[in-house]
Write a structure and sequence with these properties.
This protein has 8 helices and 5 strands. The chain is of the alpha/beta class and about 220 residues long. The chain has a single domain, classed as Rossmann fold (3-Layer(aba) Sandwich). The longest helix is centred in the middle third of the chain and has 25 residues. The two termini are about 25 Å apart. The structure holds thymidine-5'-diphosphate. The site of thymidine-5'-diphosphate has 13 residues, from α1 and α4. Thymidine-5'-diphosphate binds next to α1 and α4.
Length: about 220
């Protein structure tokens, strides 16, 4: 049973700066004496990191269902090894990408039915592993090209700007459907972080727990 652990996920297109925000958010919570851990997807476990290497290998052309099931495989391992345990211990789990990445990339990006993805999640994992709150760092892909050029280019980051646009629109649609997803418009690091904190404080002070849905409507 979930004692009182909380799952907070960070989402956004490639290069949106989630990882920096995750680090800042982690430090912020540690200062406030919360019991907090950071995990990332794909990966986060020994098996998951092996799967991650396959997924991000730029030399492979991967079938979209093969890709979907590898992300899910990595997630299944992470949930059993870490997320369920940390939830029982009452920890705050910060996730750098999580289930909404699958809806956005494999669902909206690769045109796999959202209902199908939702069904697999429900059957595999039930509902307890749905995030309590999700920060969607939103930016137009064309504004991130410079960031992406400076980064190591793995298979996915090499995909076209059109693909990133599809993902962004997908994320925005998901946010419209789910109250737990908070859109954070990307500005400079400090301002973006302030917005995350303000939404977080609102959530935690008002004890605003959302009923758990993969997709609310
Ligand atoms: P990563 O290097 O972690 O990207 P970032 O630093 O931008 O978060 O690579 C993760 C990639 O995997 C990213 O392009 C999104 C993709 N992805 C999916 O397509 N589906 C998923 O379910 C997850 C978790 C990630």
């Amino acid at each position: 049973m979930n004692k009182k652990g909380i799952i907070v996920s960070f989402e956004g297109i490639d290069g949106s700066g989630k990882t920096t925000l995750v680090k800042k958010f982690y430090k912020y919570l540690i200062k406030k004496k919360y019991d907090v851990v950071v995990l990332h997807e794909p990966g986060g476990t020994k098996i998951g990191e092996k799967i991650r290497r396959i997924l991000l290998d730029k030399n492979e052309k991967i079938n979209k269902f093969c890709e979907l099931f590898l992300y899910l495989a990595s997630r299944a391992q992470l949930i059993e090894e870490k997320i369920e345990k940390y939830l029982k211990e009452g920890k705050i789990i910060i996730l750098d990408r999580y289930i909404d990445s699958t809806f956005a990339y494999q669902g909206y990006g690769r045109d796999i039915s959202l209902k199908f993805i939702e069904k697999i999640h429900k059957n595999f994992f039930g509902e307890k592993i749905i995030p309590n709150i999700t920060f969607l760092i939103d930016e137009k892909p064309e504004n991130l090209i410079k960031v992406l050029k400076n980064k190591r280019t793995d298979r996915i980051e090499k995909e076209s700007i059109e693909f990133q646009r599809k993902i962004r629109n997908g994320y925005l649609k998901l946010a419209k459907k789910n109250r737990r997803i908070k859109i954070i418009k990307r500005e400079n690091k400090e301002k973006t972080f302030e917005k995350v904190i303000s939404k977080w404080e609102e959530f935690i002070n008002e004890n605003r727990f959302y009923k758990k849905y993969y997709i609310e409507n």
